[in-house]
Design a protein that fits this description.
Length: 282
């Protein structure tokens, strides 16, 4: 591959055009970074013949990242909190009838097998497609949650107590969370401070044109001015900080930590990104 030159890149590149993310919400800015890495990564599988400048913002409707609900569904967390629909309820009942956990009486009524009469429903086997053994799985704990009976604060406090008891009673240990990288406001701020969008856009251009861009050239393009301290961000900063952070963007924004962060700091999610950066700097 040939090495890219400064003149080639600045023929289409301007650092200023990526400043638009400052006017977006924090959540929207994160989504833009996610999509930019998608446009970069997809070139591994789908070669583009010509570099086309992307329209900004790339996502015009941030609502597309919300839950797509239909047919009276409720929001869920597919990692482990999923309201049971009637289709799955029927699959569970059919599975229980098939292996005798539920008995159908001549009257048409259903009753549990005697030894299960007072047992709560958790970790029970079911076929997700009736008659297909390969679809066998286990359901979690079926819980009746009365939203009208408790305040959110009461319910959260109760869940904290019950989850510990349920783990002891079921013998199901908490899964290990192996990702030890810290996630917080400073992580989100790096999307701007590390110039993630322009970096990935240059990398996308380089892939399409079969060029290599040196760390020094990236630094010259992304950090053309010295910092207020007089320091200059050079190729080492791109190699050691910018590149690994940007290349991990989609995995980073898919992590459990993001949901935890916004659950604990809901006021930041829809805050203007430029205002958020000012808070982080304090």
């Amino acid at each position: 591959m040939k090495r890219a030159t400064y003149k080639e890149i600045v023929s289409w590149f301007s650092l200023d055009k990526y400043e638009y993310i400052l006017n977006l919400s924090v959540r929207h800015a994160m989504a833009e970074a996610y999509i930019m890495e998608y446009h970069h990564d997809r070139l591994e599988y789908s070669k583009e013949e010509e570099f086309i400048e992307l329209p900004f913002p790339m996502i015009t409707d941030i609502g597309l990242f919300d839950d797509e609900l239909k047919y009276g569904q409720l929001s869920d967390d597919p990692r482990g909190i999923i309201p049971m629909g009637f289709n799955h309820l029927c699959e569970l009942v059919n599975s229980c009838i098939a292996d005798g956990r539920i008995i159908a009486l001549p009257s048409g009524q259903l009753k549990p097998r005697e030894d299960l009469d007072h047992q709560d429903i958790y970790n029970q086997k079911m076929l997700y497609e009736y008659g297909e053994p390969d679809t066998e799985g286990h359901i979690g704990i079926l819980v009746d949650i009365g939203l009208d009976l408790m305040s959110d604060e009461e319910m959260i406090a109760s869940f904290k107590v019950l989850i510990k008891k349920w783990r002891e009673q079921t013998g199901i240990a908490e899964p290990e969370y192996n990702d030890r990288r810290r996630f917080g406001a400073s992580t989100i701020a790096k999307i701007y401070n590390y110039k993630v969008l322009p970096y990935l856009d240059i990398a996308r251009w380089a892939k399409i044109n079969n060029k290599t861009v040196s760390n020094e050239l990236y630094a010259r393009l992304l950090f053309p001015e010295p910092l207020p301290t007089g320091d200059i961000k050079g190729g080492n900063h791109v190699r050691d900080s910018v590149r690994p952070f940007a290349d991990d963007m989609r995995d980073l924004l898919n992590r459990v930590s993001v949901k935890k962060y916004f659950a604990n700091n809901p006021e930041y999610e829809h805050m203007r990104f430029s205002d958020f950066l000012k808070i982080v700097e304090l």
